[in-house]
Every structure is written in structure tokens, then in C-alpha cells.
Design brief:
Layout lengths: L9 H12 L3 H9 L7 E5 L5 H7 L5 E6 L2 H9 L3 E4 L11 E7 L10 H10 E10 L9 H9 L14 H9 L5 E7 L4 E7 L1
Parallel strand pairs: 1-2, 1-4, 2-3, 4-5
Antiparallel strand pairs: 5-7, 6-7
Helix pairs in contact: 2-3
């Protein structure tokens, strides 16, 4: 499968994310880092170039493991002092255990059935699962050109994904986990919605 350009290079990936989030780019990471206490065990699934770890969690002395399909991103995790593994989350393999299991801006890759992955994240978490997902997306823009760009350039190596969440569809998904949701809020200027679930 062909990986989109933004997933081939950390710098291109970071520039694309900064372009999408603008002045809210750092806020999306700070919102998650604020939940994770010093010294906690963290499993970051679909970790990308490990920006969360390198810039926001490393100073908290967390025991960090990042999982991603991208070998270059995993090499960056290791260079930044974390553990990393190339991992296909579409497999049914049990995830490594950690106090906090995190996924940021990647749940849409598992549509139309993300529930089994969330269940595996809950099984691996000792304390909490933290999921932040975009609810405003280029791929779902009414502008056909912007939508096509958003859909075309989001292949992380497991196939392009045209579907995205809206706030309503994300809320509907997490209603199945209502008894576990301990926090939900809009972050990154309302571009993402954060859900924290108890393990």
C-alpha cells in the first residue's frame, strides 16, 4: 500500500499538522499531557513522530511506548528515549499494558467499526484510556477540492480513509462506553474532542 506524503517524513507531517491546527497545535498535546501524571506508564497507539512524548511527556519521566505502522516514526520514538514498535493495529493482537493508553487523531482509520480497537485499548489500560479525535476535518468539507485533498493525503500505510467523525457521530460511538467516560471536552480550539475513559 502507498503511504501518503505526509506520513513519509516527520517534518512534512509536523508542517501539515501545524497548518491544520494553527495556533491550537500545541494545545492539543497539552490537553492530553495534563491528564498523565509524572512517572506513569504510557502506551501511545498510532503515535506518529512521537511529538506528544518528545515535547510534552518526556519531562514528566513517563515510561513511554509508541506503536505505529511507520518505521521512521518508530525510529524517532527510540531516538527520543522511548520504546517503540512497528505495529498494525488492525490485527487482533493484544496491546502492551500501560497505565494510560492514548490515541490522538487516528480513530477514524478504524471506521466503520472502531469499537474492537477501543475495547483492546481498555483491556491494556491500568488506569485510563485517552482518545482525542478531530471533529472538524478537511475530508468532510463541503468544498470538493478540499475534501479530495483531505481524503487523498491521509493514508498512513493501511489504505486511504474517506470517512471522518463529526461531533455527533463521535458522541454516538462513545455512548456505548458511557459508564466509563469520566471526562469529555472540546480541545484545540474546538477542532478535536477529548474522551477519557476509566479502565
Amino acid at each position: 500500500m502507498g503511504t501518503s506524503l505526509i506520513y513519509r517524513n516527520r517534518i512534512v507531517y509536523e508542517l501539515a499538522m501545524r497548518g491544520l491546527y494553527g495556533r491550537h497545535y500545541g494545545a492539543r498535546y497539552r490537553a492530553i499531557a495534563a491528564i498523565v501524571p509524572d512517572g506513569a506508564g504510557v502506551l501511545d497507539v498510532c503515535c506518529g513522530p512521537a511529538t506528544l512524548h518528545a515535547r510534552y511527556l518526556r519531562g514528566k519521566s513517563v515510561d513511554y511506548t509508541g506503536l505505529d505502522l511507520n518505521e521512521r516514526f518508530i525510529a524517532r520514538v527510540r531516538r527520543a528515549g522511548g520504546r517503540g514498535a512497528v505495529w498494525d493495529l488492525h490485527s487482533d493482537a493484544a496491546l502492551p499494558e500501560a497505565d494510560y493508553v492514548i490515541m490522538q487523531a487516528s480513530l477514524y482509520h478504524f471506521l466503520p467499526e472502531p469499537g474492537p480497537l477501543i475495547d483492546r485499548m481498555l483491556a491494556a489500560a491500568g488506569k485510563q484510556v485517552i482518545i482525542a479525535e478531530p471533529i472538524r476535518n478537511l475530508a468532510s468539507s463541503n468544498n470538493r477540492v478540499l475534501a479530495a485533498i483531505g481524503q487523498r493525503f491521509t493514508d498512513a500505510g493501511d489504505g486511504a480513509q474517506a470517512q471522518r467523525f463529526t461531533e455527533a457521530t463521535l458522541d454516538a460511538l462513545f455512548r456505548a462506553y458511557e459508564s466509563r467516560v469520566v471526562e469529555q471536552s472540546l480541545i484545540a480550539g474546538g477542532r478535536e474532542k477529548l474522551f477519557v475513559l476509566s479502565a
